Amino acid sequence: MDYFLRREGRAHCEEVPLAAVADGAGTPVFVYSRRTIELHYGRLRDAFAGVDPLLCYSVKACPNLAVLGVLREAGAGFDVVSGGELHRALLAGADPARIVFAGVGKTAAEIGMALDRGILMCNVESAGELDLVDRVARARGRRADIALRVNPDVDPKTHTYISTGKRESKFGIDLDQARALLARLPSLPGVRMVGVHAHIGSQITEVGPHVEALRKVVDFATEARAAGNPVTVLNMGGGFGVFYRGGEARPAAEFGDALVPLVRKAGLRLVLEPGRFIVGNAGALVARVLFVKESGDRRFVVVDAAMNDLLRPSLYGAHHRVWPVDAPFEESEAEARAAETWTCDVVGPVCETGDFLAKDRRLPPVKEGDLLAVYTAGAYGMAMSSNYNSRPRAAEVLVSGDRWEVVRDRETYDDLVRGERLSALRGPSA
User: 1 vs 181, 375, 411, CA distance in Å?
Assistant: First the structure.
């Protein structure tokens, strides 16, 4: 599953003790395992090898340049949802012809940037966006390759905030509207429909919703080709789940076994946009204990990481494994050794009651200065972090074997105010 291991009771990332990273880089710090990134990319590639897919890593999951570089070297393309993510992918050495631009609200400037760089295609999510892409392309004397993102109205059975394939979602175009757009395409000389796109959600742990969605999307692709569009690409997004608690995710091979025959029968080139599946288990957030306090009947372990560093628990009620870096026994033993554990909330310094990393967890007793590791923090950890409460964002570290390096410096107080200035306006003009 990952290369976060315990050796003689001490937590390691590959061959490197997490305590050594914390001592050298400070805390809080995100630690990424190169070997785990490569492992999960390889598993997905192998699971769909029967149709030779283009795996476009979803940059939004973890956009660090070093992570993007690891994936580029492994053979990945990239899925971007903003001009900033496109800029990052290109800085990491991505081939523009292996980049897909998704997202429900692209601007004219972003579309122009994508066309100028020569990306593979834009995923179009509304009639208004289709018109905009057409105008931007014609202004450049070009024709933009697009995929229509359809909404197959499939329940992915995941958290409502990360469900994107139901009819009421803001994402994509429902199938009836998409069919109407097919009739309009001949009047739009600036676009060429080369693909169909669907993405039904994230952290999907069942195969069935993907199969149901794929069948609907293949049927629509057949209609689009019959209408004269040169559709060659089937983009099924991503959303394959990972282990947060343990046992809930399905192996990549199960998805491949179910989906590859349908893709092969359709005769289309498969594009996938995995993010969490590749980097979720490849990252951990390491924090240091500041205080242990009791209030009423609750015990709080206050650490130097907070909701501004890892928002998922506060935003989604998400579960992340949390365990001391130097624990006297393994997390799997905690229930059997309940007499030697505490029930506590792991919380941060941010001035919000919702600032927590874990609630009602059993941990070995910890004290000020101890280190905790928050696991499966590689996806939507640093990517969703903020400067709330004027807190500098954490450092990021990449581990490869027995070596590690800082791949994003910890922010400073000066970084917090960069670009700001005191106003020269003193009040109403005379």
Answer: 43, 12, 31
pLDDT of residue 338: 87
Instruction: Give catalytic residue positions.
Output: 351
Residues of the chain falling short of pLDDT 50: 157-166
Q: Give the Cβ contact number of residue 397 at 10 Å.
A: 26
Report the distance separating Cα 115 and Cα 136, nearest Å: 9
d(CA 369, CA 287) in angstroms, rounded, equals 10
Residue 164's pLDDT is 43
Domains of the chain (ranges, CATH numbers): 4-31+280-412 (2.40.37.10), 34-278 (3.20.20.10)
Identity (one letter) of the amino acid at 357? L
Cα angle 182, 107, 196; round to 5: 30
φ, ψ at 336 (rounded to 5°) = -70, -25
Q: What crossing angle do the helices spanning 108-117 and 127-139 adopt, rounded to 10°? A: 50
The pLDDT assigned to 335 comes to 82
Half-sphere exposure of 47 (CA within 13 A, CB side): 21
